[in-house]
């Protein structure tokens, strides 16, 4: 039986990749007066609904989608969280 | 010899490219919509610059799943020529035909300028009309052109002499001052190991008509014609 899931996907830059946008934002935060902030890195958040047999199937689908499209493994990592949607 | 220029939604250098291949060099040239899959008639597939699919997600990320892409991969694997410029280079890395990735410029600016690049080798059809270490001027226009690859990939690229163009000074010196976008090893363009796939951020097609001031790029197209004609 097919189930519906909601996925929240986080794509982040690998630590070896410089993030000049993150550095620029960090300097903005410091301008605000928060001098203790450091290590600002900008990533992406993607959410979607998907249909899958079960949680394992949902995770397999998401891994494929992330590996092939949502994240570029040369420069990015990803992780995700999923919840099963219970239809009313 | 026939050129095919791939047109994605958002490509914008496709006609510049055709102006050179068809307009200046008088070669058969066909615009190939990204939904087409039959490209058997082509000798050189050109993936032009622009903002395919609005650069959404990452530059070139969505274009890799266009229907034409499988045909381009087959074309490349058969040893035929594939030439990606700017967004085309980004697409070639996204689809895995070339290693590495193009990421946000070091200083965050979109750079629209003319830069000098050094031709690192001239034993490939792309650069046969240049001399080795020749310094040429090409335009660049990109926000995400900083070449990145992991250490091992970079080492392999250098060992196999896959770097075809590097950003440089007027005298051909390679240094950070003359590296406009922060590319690793000042890389402006690379080829695959066989040398039939070229990806580069600078635009030789926008430097191929003396009427617009620089025509250092024309030699690349002329070299291609000599090789395949």
From TrEMBL, chain A:
Enzyme Commission numbers on file: 6.3.5.3
Catalytic function, reaction form: N(2)-formyl-N(1)-(5-phospho-beta-D-ribosyl)glycinamide + L-glutamine + ATP + H2O = 2-formamido-N(1)-(5-O-phospho-beta-D-ribosyl)acetamidine + L-glutamate + ADP + phosphate + H(+)
Compartment annotation: Cytoplasm
Chief place of localization: cytoplasm
GO molecular function: ATP binding; phosphoribosylformylglycinamidine synthase activity
Highest taxon, organism lineage: Bacteria
GO cellular component: cytoplasm
InterPro entries: PurS, PurS-like_sf
Coiled coil location: none
Keyword Nucleotide-binding: yes
Pathway field: Purine metabolism; IMP biosynthesis via de novo pathway; 5-amino-1-(5-phospho-D-ribosyl)imidazole from N(2)-formyl-N(1)-(5-phospho-D-ribosyl)glycinamide: step 1/2
Designated name of the protein: Phosphoribosylformylglycinamidine synthase subunit PurS
Organism: Hyella patelloides LEGE 07179
From TrEMBL, chain B:
Assembly and interaction partners: Part of the FGAM synthase complex composed of 1 PurL, 1 PurQ and 2 PurS subunits.
A Pfam family it matches: GATase_5
Superkingdom assignment: Bacteria
Active site, per annotation: 86 (nucleophile), 203, 205
GO biological process: 'de novo' IMP biosynthetic process
Organism: Hyella patelloides LEGE 07179
Function recorded in the entry: Part of the phosphoribosylformylglycinamidine synthase complex involved in the purines biosynthetic pathway. Catalyzes the ATP-dependent conversion of formylglycinamide ribonucleotide (FGAR) and glutamine to yield formylglycinamidine ribonucleotide (FGAM) and glutamate. The FGAM synthase complex is composed of three subunits. PurQ produces an ammonia molecule by converting glutamine to glutamate. PurL transfers the ammonia molecule to FGAR to form FGAM in an ATP-dependent manner.
CDD domains: GATase1_FGAR_AT
Subcellular location as annotated: Cytoplasm
Xref: InterPro entries: Class_I_gatase-like, PRibForGlyAmidine_synth_PurQ
Protein's recorded name: Phosphoribosylformylglycinamidine synthase subunit PurQ
UniProt-listed PANTHER family: PHOSPHORIBOSYLFORMYLGLYCINAMIDINE SYNTHASE SUBUNIT PURQ (PTHR47552:SF1)
Pathway: Purine metabolism; IMP biosynthesis via de novo pathway; 5-amino-1-(5-phospho-D-ribosyl)imidazole from N(2)-formyl-N(1)-(5-phospho-D-ribosyl)glycinamide: step 1/2
GO cellular component, one term: cytoplasm
Keywords: ATP-binding, Cytoplasm, Glutamine amidotransferase, Hydrolase, Ligase, Nucleotide-binding, Purine biosynthesis
Listed EC numbers: 6.3.5.3, 3.5.1.2
Molecular function per GO: ATP binding; glutaminase activity; phosphoribosylformylglycinamidine synthase activity
Catalytic reaction(s) noted: L-glutamine + H2O = L-glutamate + NH4(+); N(2)-formyl-N(1)-(5-phospho-beta-D-ribosyl)glycinamide + L-glutamine + ATP + H2O = 2-formamido-N(1)-(5-O-phospho-beta-D-ribosyl)acetamidine + L-glutamate + ADP + phosphate + H(+)
